[in-house]
Structure formats: structure tokens, C-alpha cells
Amino acid sequence: RDIARSVDSRTMFATAIPRAAVGNTAPLLSLAEGTAARDAALLLANLNAIVFDFVTRQKAQSTHLNWYIVEQLPVVPKDHFSAKRFGSKSAEDIVRSIVLELTYTAHDMAPFARDLGHVDKKGNVEPPFAWDERRRLELRAKLDAVFFHLYGVTKRDDVRYIYSTFPIVEEQETREHGRYLSRDLCLAWISALAAGDPDASISL
């Protein structure tokens, strides 16, 4: 999304959408022809990671996230996702599975889900995932933990500081959950991933 006001919860808003026309304040990022959906999923997750948004916020100097700024932002190289491992799973495995669940919540995203391999034994696309706000918050926290590791930001005080720069999110979550839940979940996941347990059961 082009609009990036200081009163918004985040600076970078990126999403996968079905092929369609959009307005001028929703610029399209088109990947090179032949780019696999599996690679697009990694980029989509990267653009929405809170550590990436923190850097984006430092770069944005107006209410518009201009292309020349987007072009300078530090995206994780594709090969880093397969090289970084947390126990039995790579960052690539974790990120793709989470992106699938967060993105495929409506039938019009079925082609994307199919390209990510979300099909039954007959090759038919599985049904969309149910929209569950709590589940989505937990998945985003795990995703953010993976990206903190990919960017090399794993000191707990550094992670807490980055989360503190998103006061609107903190206020909303404290009101709804009684605590800054996404931050606390992310910190727990950072520890679990560092211990090589990508399938840990975390409940806060």
C-alpha cells in the first residue's frame, strides 16, 4: 500500500491478490515471469515481517511509501531461507506453510494455494483456511520470530525495542488481550527456534 501515515499501525502493507485492476495508491509488485509461487510466498512474508517494517519506517519520510524507497529496503536473499535451519525444518519450510494459511482464506486465492502444493491426493485444491484472529496473530508472531533470526536480531532487548516502536499495535493488543501478545509470543518463538524446536507448543 502506498499510504504510510504515522497514525497507521504499520508502514508496509503487502498482500497477494487475485489478478485484478487496482487504484494508484495500491501499487503492484510484479515478479519476473516464471517466478514460482513458492518464491513469491517468501517475499510476501518478508515484506510483512515486523523487523522489515521497522527498517521501512526509518526510511519513509512522508505519508507515501514511494518506489525509490521500496527499492532500497533490505530483503533477505532467497538462498538464506533454505540455509537457515531450526531443527528439522528450514526457514523456507516454516515461512511457506504460514504464508499459505494466512493468505488462503478465500476461494479466489485457490490458484496460489495450488501452486504452493495445497492439494489432495487427486490434485484438487483443499478448502480455504478458516479466518481466526487469535490463530492469525500467533502465526504472524512465529513468522516474525523466523525473520528476526534471518536478520540476525535475536537479543531480547533489541526485539523488545523494535516492538516498542509500534505503539498502536501495542495499545490494541493490550486492550484486547491484556498484554502485548504478539511481542511476547514472538520472544517465546525466538527461544524455541534457537533451541531447534520449530513445532513447539506455545500458549500465552
Question: Key features?
Answer:
about 200 residues, mainly alpha, 2 strands
Characterize the structure shown.
It is a single chain. The protein has 204 residues and is mostly helical. 50% of the residues lie in helices and 2% in strands. The protein contains 10 helices and 2 strands. It has helices at residues 37-48, 50-59, 67-70, 78-83, 91-103, 110-115, 133-150, 156-164, 167-177, 181-194, and strands at 85-86, 89-90. A two-stranded antiparallel ribbon has the order 1-2. The two termini are 32 Å apart.
Helix content: 40-55%
First-last Cα distance: 32 Å
Question: Mind describing the biggest β-sheet?
Answer: 2 strands, antiparallel
By DSSP (H or I, 4+ residues per run), the number of helices equals 10
Q: State the shape.
A: globular
Strand order of the largest sheet: 1-2
Average pLDDT for all residues? 91
Strand content bin: under 5%
> How many strand elements?
2
Low-confidence stretches: none
